[in-house]
Amino acid sequence: MTVVALDAGQVLDRAGELAELLVDTVDGGASVGFLAPLDRAEALAWWQGRVAGVAAGELAVWAAYEGARLVGTVSLAFPDKPNSRHRAELVKLMVHREARGRGLGRLLLDTAERAAVAAGVTLLHLDTETDSPAEHLYRTAGWTRLGAIPDYAASPAGVLRPTTIYYKQVGVAAVVGGLAGG
């Protein structure tokens, strides 16, 4: 597996591959903001809509490849407010159904966490569907469960489901927090 950071041009060039991954993720039941069945054109337009954010530095995108095949992605969304430059949101961690169970989700998560630290981020946060397989990944990777919000978003099947909020201190904040707590 190879994980590479994508610039705006690469996101645009690879939007078709990224769209196929998004369709597979939604068809597989993952709640990533879309209802099933997800039309490929809608998925393509969604990825094309991310290009400006990548170009502006508001969004960082990584793609995981197995050979020449795109099998996963993860992104970090950076806030635009001056009082929140120390944090980022982990978004759209997706692994193709055929590539699951081989540690790719953990590799993508680790990649995003390391990149966050390199960018000076000290706090990460995310939300994920409560009781989804992703919760196990986040818990075992040291993320802290904050709580759940009922009926937060519709699942791909259109059923309202709760979401769980997680956070993780990284970089200097993680070290200082660990020293203060220990």
TrEMBL record:
GO molecular function, one term: acyltransferase activity, transferring groups other than amino-acyl groups
Domain N-acetyltransferase: 1-165
Keyword Transmembrane helix listed: no
Pfam families reported in the protein's UniProt record: Acetyltransf_1
Protein name listed in UniProt: N-acetyltransferase
Lineage: Bacteria, Bacillati, Actinomycetota, Actinomycetes, Kitasatosporales
Organism name: Streptomyces spinoverrucosus
Acyltransferase in keyword set: yes
Superkingdom of this protein's organism: Bacteria
UniProtKB keywords: Acyltransferase, Transferase
